[in-house]
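Quick review question:
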């Protein structure tokens, strides 16, 4: 399963404020098969998972600095 969203750069090292679309793939196995999605945007990673949300990190494609944010699970 693929999730994606829009992030405005929140780097503490400057005032980039670039807005970009990010993606993250959640591994899913169906009948022993692993489904794979095409990922063509900046890739986020989960740095913490809670019951209702993910704390995520992604690199801004403009300033190359890490951005952290929370993604609410559906």
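Suggested answer, residue by residue:
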């Amino acid at each position: 399963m693929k999730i994606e969203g829009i992030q405005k750069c929140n780097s503490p090292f400057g005032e980039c404020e670039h807005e970009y679309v990010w993606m993250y793939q959640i591994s899913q196995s169906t009948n022993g098969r692993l489904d794979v999605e095409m990922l063509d945007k900046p890739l986020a990673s989960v740095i913490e998972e809670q019951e209702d949300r993910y704390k995520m990190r992604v690199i801004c494609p403009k300033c190359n600095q890490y951005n952290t944010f929370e993604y609410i699970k559906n």
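Why it works: The first strand starts at residue 2 and ends at 8. The mean pLDDT is 88.
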